[in-house]
Design goal:
alpha/beta, Rossmann fold, six-stranded parallel beta sheet, 13 helices, 32% helix, globular, binds iron/sulfur cluster
């Protein structure tokens, strides 16, 4: 069996948006098995993708070259792969397939990676109307210069219903509880985060309707999770920083509704097919939409949108503060 190595993105949402590329590769090259090299923060999602045969987990840290480690692992993988797809645009991410002597190394030019990438695609334009991220990745399945045609498969993660119940019990929740998962983080920056007060007010209203709002997120989201818990006077239960990514995925799979910023967990909820309300601020729902028919998007489409900034350059973030809890509650009623 021939093997493909995929160098995974380091952002959770990008990993989900890259899945249709893996689906395309599986359809085009059924005799190839796909292995994915991923950092621990995203590796669990690839273990839930049916296209992936094996996940190689390696803790290459953001911002570090890790040259010796990349060399050692590359040499250990020498001769194992017929082709590699390098999904991040950084120079260092292309080193390992080069060290492993993978004959075909496919990727975008990125940071002038001439020589490291052997099948080189031109970097796409990055204006306000940039193409959907999912097509950016899927385009790599075609030879450079040939336009990708047709619809793409939607991301899809496998979960075991028994593991969903186990995750609820492990976190002190009742299996039959009607959960609403609130995902208030967005590692990119505050211009993608709906205010904690708005999440809290929404949580209080949902609790009054008999649901249990739970806050999910990484350890970085603990302060905002605690704020939502306090501002909602305990209506929301903060679980941010208290779950593994795998448990968070299972809790989302076991939720009746998800309310989320444009974040990695938004894409997880889409890949799990859960009804969701997705809130967009400085980013664009044309570029990174939740890839699911069960998603309702709220986007204010201001004159300044999308600016793709991490922090609002105008200092008011009205694209998000202007979305009222009542708007979200109405969207929840539509999405349910
Ligand atoms: S400039 Fe406009 S789109 Fe960008 S963060 Fe500010 S309000 Fe939002």
């Amino acid at each position: 069996m021939k093997r493909t190595l995929v160098i995974a993105p380091n952002w959770l949402g990008d990993c989900l948006m890259a899945q249709p590329l893996l689906t395309l590769l599986t359809a085009k090259q059924p005799s190839f098995e796909i292995d994915v090299l991923a950092i621990p923060a995203v590796a669990p999602v690839f273990r839930r993708m049916p296209e992936v045969s094996k996940v190689i987990e390696e803790d290459f840290r953001h911002g570090r070259l890790d040259l010796a480690r990349r060399w050692r692992l590359g040499r250990a993988l020498k001769g194992r792969y017929a082709q590699a797809f390098v999904l991040p645009n950084s120079w260092k991410s292309a080193l390992l397939p080069f060290f492993a002597d993978v004959p075909l190394r496919v990727g975008y030019a990125g940071e002038s990676r001439f020589g490291l990438i052997s099948v080189l695609h031109r970097n796409p334009a990055r204006g306000p109307n940039r193409e959907p991220m999912v097509r950016f990745y899927a385009q790599l399945a075609e030879p450079p210069g040939r336009k990708l045609a047709g619809e793409l498969a939607q991301p899809l993660l496998r979960v075991d219903p028994v593991a969903v119940i186990a995750a609820k019990v492990a976190l002190g929740l009742k299996p039959a509880e009607r959960l609403v998962a609130l995902c208030p983080g967005a590692e990119y920056g505050p211009a993608k985060r709906w205010p904690a007060e708005h999440f809290a007010e929404t949580a209080a209203r949902l609790k009054a309707q008999g649901m249990l709002p739970i806050v999910l997120g990484s350890p970085k989201d603990v302060p905002i999770g605690l704020s939502i818990e306090q501002l909602s006077h305990g209506a929301a239960l903060n679980l941010a920083g208290k779950t593994t990514l795998d448990q968070a995925m299972h809790l989302i799979a076991g939720s009746a509704m998800v309310v989320t910023n444009d974040s990695g967990l938004m894409h997880v909820a889409a890949a799990l097919g859960r009804p969701q309300v997705a809130l967009f601020g400085s980013s664009s729902p044309q570029h990174t939409p939740p890839l699911s028919a069960a998603a309702v998007v709220i986007y204010k489409r201001l004159e300044c949108s999308p600016c793709f900034a991490r922090e609002c350059p105008l200092g008011h973030t009205r694209c998000l503060t202007g979305i009222a809890p009542a708007d979200v509650l109405a969207a929840i009623a539509r999405a349910a």
